[in-house]
Specification:
This protein is an alpha/beta fold. The protein contains 12 helices and 18 strands. The strands form 4 sheets. The chain has an 8-stranded mixed β-sheet. It has a 5-stranded parallel β-sheet with strand order 7-2-1-11-18. The radius of gyration is 21 Å and the shape is globular. The termini are close together. It binds flavin-adenine dinucleotide (FAD). Flavin-adenine dinucleotide (FAD) binds near residues 14 and 190.
């Protein structure tokens, strides 16, 4: 534990999952932070999120496992079906064998619930201060620290600064300066349905997805089975950028016209969809500059096909706090060490998320081959394919580098 409570705080720009996780991880090391959020309150979009076993290891460290588990659904399987024929392609059991292999579970949670767990833990710490309705527009670095300025005209002074401001990060432009994120040409529609509106034969205690030609649909339960989360994705070059706008259901139905009955039935149940234009960036290895660095989507935005963006942000948080502790207050050194520990892992997830996007949306021969390969897999072979992401790997792309150089402690 560092005795840093009397020093200038670390400024965290953005109070999403990444920003709150890093505030909490630093508080555990005795580091004071100020979280500066542009929105009027800390909130998450009303949709589901999947949590791999790798992020549960971080929850153990952050002391959040119990609170997250109380609100999460623990699905029985990951099930993939062909969206055209409706046939099951493969299922990965998430039972005792999965837990024995990866030591932690796979879970599904309502995003606002995850954020509320993080926020409650942060509020319990007297080392974290919160500022809302403050959009950071400028950041300066000087000999003794950093200054962040908001559009309201406020200046925040800190010893260092962490940009946790997401895909459209302002701080990234000041550190990396690589312009807008890359539009993937994939559009996502998200909705949450009360369970009574999901036909009984389609309710499963599993993460189910139908993979089609340039489309897929995901369905899973949330909040003890009160709700079902639906995510529909299709390829379209019609949109350039933007997010969280109301979608055009006519286009959605047209793109899914060739899919099987369950998929079309589910799409027909939704009256109000929200639309996202998916973006990512190619991986980079340097997202720090002196006393400034990035975490989460600001550092390594990725497509959602491995369901890992938030998990990576939380891994970043734990890793960064460990490096700050090891560097004993030398933030520039800590941030260098943190990105060196993270860029190959997060880069691999960014790249593989693109690959999986193509794989899930395959057509023709590629689709046939995909179905043939996956349906032949045993549970053990599926686990083996997930080892690099969920396993106890301490190699350059394994989660273990989150900890190296610092003691693993249960928060
Ligand atoms: C369709 C979809 C499904 C997904 N599914 C999963 C999944 O199953 N599992 C998973 O792990 N990940 C998933 N993700 C990814 C995950 O949502 C993101 O990676 C994660 O939310 C990133 O968190 P973040 O804190 O880095 O950024 P954000 O959540 O974007 O938070 C950034 C915060 O910074 C604030 N901010 C921005 N600019 C400023 C500024 N200038 N000043 C002050 N505040 C600012 C914002 O208001 C926001 O609160 C999915 C993403 C999508 C699009």
């Amino acid at each position: 534990m560092l005795n840093r409570a009397e020093q200038a705080p670390v400024l965290i720009v953005g109070g999403g999952i990444g920003g709150l996780a890093v505030a909490l991880a630093l508080a555990q090391k005795g580091v004071r932070t100020q979280v500066i959020e542009q929105a009027g309150e800390f909130k998450e979009v009303g949709a589901g999120i999947q949590l791999g076993p790798n992020v549960f290891r971080m929850f153990d460290v952050l002391g959040l496992t119990e609170a997250v588990s109380a609100l999460a659904v623990f699905p029985e399987n990951l099930i993939m079906l062909d969206a055209i024929t409706g046939e099951e392609v493969t299922r990965v059991p998430l039972d005792g064998r999965f837990r024995a292999r990866f030591t932690h579970p796979y879970a599904l949670i309502y995003r606002p619930d995850l954020l509320s767990v993080l926020l409650a833990a942060c509020r319990n710490s007297n080392l974290i201060e919160f500022y809302t309705s403050q959009k950071v527009t400028a950041v300066e670095q000087h000999a003794r620290g950093v200054t962040a300025r908001s559009d309201e005209g406020y200046a925040y002074e800190g010893a260092a600064l962490i940009g946790a401001d997401g895909l459209w990060s302002t701080v990234r432009q000041l550190i990396v300066g690589d312009g807008k994120p890359q539009v993937a040409g994939h559009i996502t529609y998200r909705a949450v349905l009360p369970t009574k509106e999901v036909p009984e034969h389609l309710r499963r205690w599993s993460m189910t997805f139908w993979a089609g030609e340039k489309v897929h649909l995901v369905l899973y339960p949330l909040r003890g089975g009160e709700l079902y989360n639906l995510v529909a994705v299709f390829h379209s070059n019609r949109y350039e950028e933007g997010w969280d706008s109301f979608g055009d259901p006519a286009e959605l139905h047209e793109r899914f016209a060739r899919t099987c009955e369950p998929v079309r039935t589910l799409l027909g149940k939704i009256e109000s969809w929200r639309m996202w234009v998916l973006c990512d960036r190619p991986p980079i290895k340097n997202w720090s500059k002196g006393r400034m660095t990035l975490v989460g989507d600001a550092a390594h935005p990725m497509l959602q096909y491995l369901a890992q963006g938030a998990c990576m942000a939380i891994e970043d948080a734990v890793c960064l706090a460990n490096r700050v502790e090891s560097a004993r207050g030398d933030y520039a050194r800590a941030f260098e060490a943190y990105q060196a520990a993270r860029y190959l892992r997060t880069g691999r997830v960014q790249i593989m998320a693109r690959v999986y996007g193509e794989f899930y949306h395959a057509s023709g021969v590629a689709r046939e081959l995909r179905n043939m390969m996956l349906s032949a897999r045993t549970a053990e072979q599926s686990f083996e394919a997930m080892e690099w992401l969920y396993g106890n790997d301490t190699g350059p792309t394994g989660y273990g580098r989150v900890f190296s150089g610092a003691k693993i402690s249960a928060g």
